[in-house]
Queue: 2 jobs
Job 1
Amino acid sequence: MGTALREDELNEDAVRAALKSSWLGRPYHFVDSVDSTNDQLKRWAADPAVPSGTVLLTEHQSAGRGRLNRRWEAPSGTSLLFSVLLRPGWPARRAVWLTMLAGLAVVEAIEATTGLHPRLKWPNDVVLGEDQTPGNDGGEDRRVWRKVGGLLLDATFNADGRLESAIPGIGLNVNIPAEALPHAFTPATSLLVAGGRPVPRRPLLVALLECLERHYDAAASGQSPWHLWNERLITLGRTVQVTAGDIGTLVGLAEGTDEWGQLLVRDEAGKLHAIAAGDVTLRGH
Ligand code: BT5
């Protein structure tokens, strides 16, 4: 059995032996199957004895969720599917920092363990770029971006407007073969398909949890992750179409993001919109 397969095991003993974090992933729980790691961790979070840093990972979800109750599809044993319970106590508006921290951790862990260079697509996608024509290194504008992972944040707030619990959920397509990728609106890929070889999941998970702890600790001391997150975004400076509940559909230039992670889009009439949540498609090349 090759190294890739040996280092693929994600059970509690294997991960605990490898993890060097000081609090995140302690405890670490592994279950073969669950409805959704976010939903299960939400149930556990109701018990105050369950500590901040608790991680729940599974090989299979029967009701894996994206935003707006969309489905997250992943063949058993091919992915990283997990959630982290955090109890930040931060002001409510910093909830968006958790999505930023999770995105940064995913990107950095993939870079450190595979050599691939993922980016973030506002607001919560992890994407890999693929040149459209062979031999073309014409930069970002000439790339097709495929979704390799997604982030989902569930949060609760207490009566004085503080972030009581935050559960970032991460779904990452690691070793899904091309023929098993879900057919999705944003085309999907996996680290296997993009890199051409299987990726052992344990070192990737361990790097991700350690990166997340480091970024979280910096944020907890008041340091905003916004600059680092913003640098990883692909959408900026491009014409985009945004669909969001409150504005419907808007086409405009994505000029940037503000410190609260809102996408700033200037429409054709010159009006600037700050969008907190929605779906973005890149237009034109
Ligand atoms: C997301 O939502 O991208 C957040 C996904 C979070 C999943 C993790 S898995 C562990 C934890 N437990 C959960 O129950 N959830 C989290 P959104 O931006 O709404 O994207 C959802 C859309 O992505 C779907 O409607 C599909 O079109 C597409 N999709 C589904 N599965 C996919 C996959 N494996 N790879 C790429 N795209 C996928």
Job 2
Amino acid sequence: MEKSQVIPTVEQICALYDFLSPCMDNYLYFYDVKNDYYCISENAVHRFAIPATRFHNSYKVHEQFVYSEDYKRLLSLGKENDVIHEIDCRWLDKKGMPVWVNCRGKSVHDDEGELIYVIGCVNEIGKEQRADNVSGLRSATLFYENLEKRLKRGNIKGFLMRIGIDGMKEINENFGIDYGNMVLQRTAECVQSVIHKDERIYRIVSDEFIISDFSGRGIEEATRLYKRINWMLGRFIQQNSYDVFFTVSAGIVLFDSLENQSYQNMMKLSEFALNASKDNGRNQYYVYDEADYQHFIDKCRLAHIMRQAVNNDYEGFEVYYQPIMDIVHNRLCGAEALMRFRSEETGIVSPAEFIPILEETGLIIPLGMWIIEKAIQVCKEIQKTFHRFRISVNLSYIQVQKSNILAQIIDLIEQYELSPDCLMIELTESGFMADSPKFARFCEGVKEQGILLALDDFGSGYSNFRYLFDLNPFTLKIDRAFTVKAIQSEHEFRLLRHMIEMAHSINLKFCIEGVETQEDLTKICEIEPDYIQGYFFGKPVPLPEFLQRHVL
Ligand code: C2E
Ligand code: CA
Ligand code: CA
């Protein structure tokens, strides 16, 4: 220190530290070298394994809270003649866990040049940021701290709204990071301009914000807030002549609806709520509902159980076979292979429930292959007594899009020496597939190989004639729901009759699903379909039962 400067006394410095400690996140330290007397601000004593704010015998005491590997390096501090020193090292927290800190200080010498004090500041290097410079908002760390503070005061009322920018990844990829940052900033500004004065907004992760309202407002105010945010964003986009375009989704969690008001639980549920609004189609809000969450958890559990089953040699999966009748010649012509799953924990699960989960998790890819191989094996076996028996298998669009399914099917056909026209691939309609080149190549490849294609569930969901002509399948399968309507309503029945005529005029075969009774059969036969599949001729059953009832 320069001679003209006044050196404060030890008491003065220690008193100043006591004043400053509550106002700081960092930790100030001071070492009186001559008296081997150490002083550190009080907040450090709360955080680290430091026994007291003031102590003698400094080096010995440091051994208690400095990570052993770093202790030796610390001993050299201040002994060198550098005026400023800096070191990164680990201090032990109250639980004995190492925490990275940066100690930066200054050595103070007296008039004779003798070292008298070391004075400085400790920062936690790994400590998360408390504010975010891109959005100009408070950070997740601060949200955590504020929530914890509120929770200490007891049960809280109000809501959390987690907001996500839809398609942020695509925005960054297509327009660049700067553009993405601008979208984030504008969203933050729009939200800030409409929130109530006692609501707070934080940036949680890259493209998500959270608004906390601890003032007891409820669902109506929360949804109104979302609409205001959307309106503000819409106005901003309009003012910019649609140069920028993006939408936001929101998940709302009402504190009242939560039994467990911990930070972890709230983050988990708000994330679930936001994902739900995105899954529902984005650009909307979703209010957390316990029953929905339970359903989601059950789905995750089922996915887990099925993944284990797949890894355990498909244990629990079975194939059932349902007869398909050639109604023109009044005889059995084949069967549809249908998947079943059962386990001790879940009992029997319906494919309507588990197929979408297999698709979401990608497990449909190994299982889809598994059922095709089983079906081909069984078909080949049945053909020993029933010449030209035909087997139908369902294929999910995921298998077509994300695996090399055609090559695998061709391998299997060759391996089992099955005639390709004894395998029928059933595909359902989906708007998504219509324009996919991979899907078009797959269908072409299937037909080139001589494998038969069926367009399944015709008359439900998308019924796109362009798709039908593009696909040009061998058979059109009418969804059971449509069959039921046609049996009940003259109008639908006439429609069905015309559909069959149209199909026959372009050489398509027509299969009607869901014929359950003799009356259904009599009625349906009036319009002369080619094939019928329904409970009247047989429900899907395990292979031995199928053989006994329909083949032997
Ligand atoms: P789908 O392909 O339309 O299969 C026909 C469904 O209708 C079967 O239901 C069958 O049991 C049912 N069904 C047939 N005739 C009648 C009837 O007369 N009355 C009634 N009430 N129902 C009848 P299931 O086996 O429950 O399968 C449901 C759906 O799950 C299937 O509909 C198919 O989309 C899917 N699925 C089943 N197995 C597989 C598979 O291995 N892979 C794929 N991707 N999907 C599968
Ligand atoms: Ca089918
Ligand atoms: Ca069907």
